[in-house]
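Dear all,

This email documents one entry for the complex benchmark we are building for the journal club exercise. For each entry we list the sequence lines for every component of the assembly. Then comes the predicted three-dimensional structure of the complex as a token string, followed by one or two observations. Please use this as the template for your own entries, and keep the labels exactly as they appear.
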Amino acid sequence: MSMLEEPRGGGACGFPSFLYPGQADLGSVLAEARRSTEEKAAEIVRLRWQVAEMAGDELAECAQEMAIRFASGGRLFAFGNGGSSTDAQEVATTFLYPAYGLSLPALSLTGDVAVVTALSNDVGFDVVFARQLAALGRRGDIAVGLSTSGGSFNVLQAFEEASRRGMLTIGLAGDQGGKLAGLGLLDYLFVIPSSSVHRIQEAQTTLYHVLWELTQHALGAVPAPQVHDAG
Amino acid sequence: MPLTSTMHPTVGEAFLKRDRAGRALAANSERIALACREMAARFRRGGKLIVFGNGGGGADAAHIAVEFMHPVIVGKEALPALALSNDSATVTGLSSREGFAEAFAHQVRRWADPADMALGISRDGRCENVLRALEAARELGLFTLALVGGGGGAIMRDRAADHILVADSDDPAVVKEIHVTMYHVVWELVHVLFEQPGLIGDGGAG
């Protein structure tokens, strides 16, 4: 997970600094809290549209490529750190046990604590995903890596390994794309243009859900009416 | 390779269906502020946050726990939080012997102290084990918060939590996206209020 700081004026978390000395009354703080929530809701709505505008074509193309890999027996591997590790789990379970459509083979490389701690302890945290891809991955598979900063070393190393193996490589990053943008070997890199880690993660969630929907569409699956969901 | 002709309209539709739910989130701002005030007071009293959910909601539980335990903003205090869906040995062990409906309630009963908070995630509000864990938490005097979607299911019907935040969509993927913004905002506001003990009191709200 990135340690990007929220570059906002005034107090942390986008709150005006006058709230911090402790002189404000509860009513005004709660009013400020409501205003802040409304502002953030509007911000992520705007950011999603910005992503749709910037990356819509590429998303459709990427999903088409993913569908081709799945149709040929490819599997998906997802990885990330911290909050992004939970996104990797969400990506894997979304493809493997979907709300509708085809169940597709997908695995999160962050789920097995024995593997993750063994590799980290014996070799180093930087190889924690790359080594798993070296063992499990093959040509025609799909690697999906998430990093809000684009700078996570283990994600970068995993992409190098995936690329060597002929996997389709899809990166999700934020801000300027960090080192992932400079890597030059990704088939697709989606950069969320925001400096807030939280908004980046929220837009990335939409982005990989949309990729899943488009992949299902490309494979001919039709959305079913939403009745029940395990999540 | 050329894209199939139906892909582009599908991209537009995918983003469009997120727009309404995204805008509707703002209607929860009052509920969010009140929940965060009580959570901040309970953290001040030494309470911890216990989080649970199924499927992708289990991943959200882990995300929420790490958000509090390892704050993304440098200088913010780490606050105690625990996700009950992380330990597959416990979850599968409990499910195997007690039934999946007990997977979280059992853990809540063992872990809970009266100053604690329980946060359950269920994208359709129908998860039996989330409902039971919220009920167990409430019986033990914990603060209870639920993140649900759609009609809110049994959790909403039974008012199974003191605070219920509803993502206004029937699509579980969209519900998750709204939930992520909700819990990010909750984390921020809890910290803002936590840093103002004079305002929130020492837990009287709890």
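Observations: Chain A touches chain B through 72 residues (CB under 8 Å). The beta strands of chain A are 76-80, 106-108, 142-146, 168-174, 188-192.
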